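Holo model, magnesium ion. Inputs:
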Amino acid sequence: MQHIDHTPTASFKIVLVGDQSVGKTHLLHQYVQGTAPPHVQATLGVEFHAKTQMIEVFQTAESLQKVMIKMSFFDTAGEEKYHAVTACHYRNAKGAIIVYDVTNRQSFENVERWLNDARQLAAQDCVIMVLGNKTDVDLPQEMSLGDIHYTPPLRGKIPLQREVSLQEGLDLAKQHEVIFFEVSALQNVNIDRAMKVMSEKLYEQFLIMRMRRLDQIMAQEITEQQQGVKLRGNRSQSRFECCISSGRHDGEGQQQRCC
Ligand SMILES: Nc1nc2c(ncn2[C@@H]2O[C@H](COP(=O)(O)OP(=O)(O)OP(=O)(O)O)[C@@H](O)[C@H]2O)c(=O)[nH]1
Ligand SMILES: [Mg+2]
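Output:
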């Protein structure tokens, strides 16, 4: 039987951003707790959640290894007045999840702004994922599946309707080279899949950065060794020039004691 080590090998800080009411808190609750949050209320400042996740990585071309990683989420408030606070949370973040609402075009148009923040404020190796939430509005207006009866979500008294197409989301993701999924936090659709891709990318980036650091350390050691050899080499060269090749003598015919 394969032994699985459940101690997290790596830990990542991830910030969740996006306009107000796009569903960031619902999304995170579905992923971490497997349910909707107990109360529907706007996030004040920031909320923290953590989850360990098992991922599979290729150790060699043939063998897959199971690795446990820990993800610490910073669920931020989308309300404009918290923007400055949200910006602070990018410090040391290895991942950023930008959420928009497919029924709210403005929230999609603001994704560029959230992307700019992430690019400017997070680490250079930060993994970015964009999620278009509330795809459940695509379901038929009234639906009954056995015992389950589905009534469409409303904005006021009007059923919510999609304002951003899947293609627009895909185009934006391609243009900005970010991971992209459409999801429904309410119906728990595609969230685990999106988070799996995100966590694997985070771990891949972690390995790349570790390799780079090792390369830098090795390159530095080699440079230091070479400099050491050069210094020693220079010293022996000056000794050589001074005592032997110059053959300088003082005025009284004595060799100078320079070395
Ligand atoms: N139809 C539908 N409604 C959703 C979905 N996710 C969230 N909502 C609704 O959207 C509203 C806002 O959800 P939140 O999770 O509080 O949104 P938020 O982005 O955390 O909002 P702030 O904390 O204010 O930034 C709530 O009324 C939710 O019920 C979804 O997938 N589908
Ligand atoms: Mg919230």
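The two ends are 70 Å apart (CA to CA). The beta strands are 10-18, 46-58, 64-76, 95-101, 127-133, 143-145, 148-150, 154-155, 158-159, 179-182.
Archived with the compound record.
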